[in-house]
Design a protein that fits this description.
The chain is α+β, with helices and mostly antiparallel strands and 179 residues long. The protein has a single domain, classed as Beta-Lactamase. The protein has five helices and five strands. Strands 2-1-5-4-3 form a five-stranded antiparallel beta sheet. Strand 1 and strand 2 form a beta hairpin. The radius of gyration is 21 Å and the shape is elongated. The model has no long low-confidence stretch (mean pLDDT 88). Pfam families: GAF (PF01590).
């Protein structure tokens, strides 16, 4: 039997590399599973609510976020990557959503909202808006929003309940809790 003094050093980098690759692969799988759940959720909501757009607005920083997912009735309604007005969403609004606020606006032209909020929604072609928070133990992870772009829309209690149920499903998914 021959002992090769370098053989144990040759295997150690491979083992560390394999462990690193496995961690990377596990992370990618979790990300793909999370993304697929969000994609399915936004698609199901858009079809069930019969709206033009359902989006996930994800917070990547202290009240800074962007639209990271969208389900569209037509590509003309795409707002993917939109970040929203910095001066509109502040600690006051964040506190409301942290407390579980649901915001249903039947017609942005008739609703009593801040001008910056109305302009923001109008620029995105929104006429009616339904927003529910996605709350995880760490706080406000994101907002799930349904947009009706072609005219006013009254939101039913069933519409609101459906959005809240889907937001809770997202908020309890292990892949979202870890992200």
């Amino acid at each position: 039997m021959q002992i090769h003094p370098h053989s144990q050093f040759e295997h150690r980098p491979n083992r560390h590399r394999e462990e690193g690759l496995q961690r990377l692969l596990d992370g990618l799988i979790k990300t793909m599973q999370r993304d697929e759940l969000v994609r399915q959720t936004t698609n199901q909501l858009r079809e069930s609510l019969q709206v033009d757009r359902v989006v996930l607005y994800y917070f990547y920083g202290q009240w800074q976020g962007q639209v990271t997912f969208e389900s569209l009735s037509s590509q003309e309604f795409s707002i993917l990557g939109s970040t929203g007005p910095d001066d509109c969403f502040n600690n006051e609004y964040a506190a409301l959503y942290l407390a579980g606020r649901v915001r249903a606006i039947a017609d942005i032209e008739l609703e009593s909202i801040q001008a910056c909020h109305r302009d923001f929604l109008s620029n995105m072609q929104v006429r009616a808006n339904l927003v529910v928070p996605i709350l995880i133990p760490r706080g406000l992870w994101g907002l799930l929003a349904a947009h009706h772009c072609q005219g006013p829309r009254s939101w039913s209690s069933l519409d609101i309940e459906m959005m809240q149920t889907q937001a809770k499903t997202l908020a309890t998914d292990p892949n979202i809790l870890e992200s």
